[in-house]
Amino acid sequence: MRLKISHQTSYQYQWPASYGLQELRLTPQDSDAQRIVDWQIALRGGRKELQFCDQHQNIVLLIGFLGTGDAISIDCTGEVVTTDTAGIVGRHSGPAPLWYFETSTPLTRAGNLTRHLAAGLTTKFADPVTRLHALSARVLEAIEWVPGHTDANTGAEEALGAGRGVCQDHAHVFIAAARSMGVPARYVSGYLMLTDRIEQDASHAWAEAHVDGIGWIGFDVSNGISPDARYVRVATGLDYRQAAPISGLRIGNRGDETLAVRIQVQQ
Q1: Exposed end of the chain (fewer CB within 10 Å): N or C?
Q2: In whole angstroms, what is the distance from residue 209 CA to residue 217 CA?
Q3: How would you label 107-146 residue by residue, b for 16+ Cβ within 10 Å and e otherwise?
Q4: Half-sphere exposure (CA, 13 Å, Cβ side) for 119?
Q5: CB neighbours (10 Å) of residue 220?
Q6: Phi-psi region of 86 (alpha: psi -120 to 50; beta: other; left: phi over 0)
Q7: Rounded Cα gap, residues 117 and 66, in angstroms
Q8: Comparing C-alpha atoms, which of 17, 91, 31, 29 is closest to residue 60?
Q9: Which pLDDT value is given to residue 66?
Q10: How far apart are CA 65 and CA 63, in angstroms?
Q11: Is-contact 92 210, C-beta < 8 A?
Q12: What is the CA radius of gyration of the chain?
């Protein structure tokens, strides 16, 4: 499948910031499941400082801006050819060892609610892939997809307690529960082509778990499936904060900040 993607992000500040830095994890890479035909990032109001690969092998573009304007925009456009691999990403690679992906973070800390959610899965399902699909189904049953009730700082336990959330929360709870069972797991940010519309308000998120003999496998809890040819994988991390499309800081601006995001994904 050939997908065309447009991702526009704009920040409007009440007063110009004296200085700011942002990390952009917005560049997908070639893999068995996707081939990047073209990918461009255009900046207005900021400048490229450097580009590097982080510990998760994400391509990170560091941009800076000075207090010469009150707006910044980041426009990503590109085309990606995708293949359905049934969610299988493949063997582990990179500098981080597998045990690193069993590390708890504030957003993926497993408490009583998470451990209760995962209880019995190890004994009930001998096959690890079946077990993880069952975990995905439990998470979706426990957290109804309702936007507006959580934010970027909501942890897995809090989302479970609320019983409502979005794809980010589904991924965090799945990751926390998988790690509580001794399974390495990580967060994935990317894009999903929807069947009912082209315009989207946000990028998508799902989780990956590592299974011996197979490697990394994706689980999109929100849609109850493993990623197929409609998905474009962009960045990974222990949680949202390490795989966020845009993160950063600004100095010297105490006024209001307005964020607008417009995404289009189409065949």
Answers
A1: C
A2: 5
A3: bbbbeebbeebbeebeeeeeebbebbbbbbebbbebbeee
A4: 7
A5: 26
A6: left
A7: 47
A8: 29
A9: 74
A10: 7
A11: yes
A12: 19
pLDDT reported for residue 112: 96
Identical topology for domains 2-82+246-266 and 88-243? no
How much is the pTM?
0.94
For residue 88, the one-letter residue type is I
1: Cβ contacts below 8 Å, ≥ 6 apart? 81, 82, 83, 193, 229, 230, 267
* Domain boundaries, given as residue ranges, for the chain: 2-82+246-266, 88-243
Q: How much is the pLDDT for 67?
A: 66
Given a contact cutoff of 8 angstroms between Cβ atoms, the answer to whether 205 and 188 are in contact is yes
Q: Do you know the residue count of the chain?
A: 267
Conformational region of residue 136, where left means phi above 0, alpha means psi within -120 to 50, and beta covers everything else: alpha
Report residue 66 as tokens.
Answer: 């000075």
Which of the following CATH numbers is that of domain 88-243: 3.10.620.30, 3.10.580.10, 3.90.400.10, 3.40.50.1820? 3.10.620.30
Task: Write out the E strands in 93-220.
Answer: 144-145, 164-165, 185-192, 199-200, 204-211, 215-219
List the chain residues with pLDDT less than 70: 67-69, 252-255
Query: Tokens for 54?
Result: 């982080």
